[in-house]
Amino acid sequence: MDGSRSNKRSHGERIKYKLVVVPHGNDIASLFELDPTTLQKTDSFVPRNSYVRLRHLCTNTWIQSTNVPIDIEEERPIRLMLGTCPTKEDKEAFAIVSVPVMEIRDLDFANDASAMLGTVVDQFSKGFISQNDRRSAIKLLEDVVFFVADVTNS
Question: What is the C-alpha separation between 49 and 69, in angstroms, rounded?
Answer without folding.
Answer: 26
